[in-house]
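Progress report, Aim 2. The chain analyzed during this reporting quarter is listed below.
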Amino acid sequence: MIQEFKTFIAKGNVMDMAVGIIIGAAFTAIVTSLVGDLINPLIGLFTGGIDFTNNYAVLAGDVAEGASLEAARETGASVFAYGAFIMAIINFLIIAWVVFMLVKMVNRVKDAAAEQEEEAEAAPAGPSELDILMEIRDALKK
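Predicted structure tokens for the chain:
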């Protein structure tokens, strides 16, 4: 059973998947920073500085007027955090757009590489050995 497990782990698909997960985690950190540190402040600038994250409605409990979402949750109040949900949707759409653009770029590079391979295969390789020998034979006959 251990040998079978070693064979399974040594297969290329498992290693490729592990590398993909590691790269995906690193990419997630980059995209999260892009969204949180660069794009969300721009969205706030265009919306008049509104930070959707702290928009909520109190369903039950006492919350001080103007308290942040975190403070409202700490009091134990039941809150409907629609602002955090809106920001999650915006973040998702931005991340999906970045991933789409990345995949589009990778596909473009793959297509260009495939075209180069096809051109290399389609290009004449020159005369074969048999063709050269036949030319020599014909030249000697003359």
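The longest strand covers residues 57-60. The first helix runs from residue 2 to 10. These observations will guide the mutagenesis work planned for the next reporting period.
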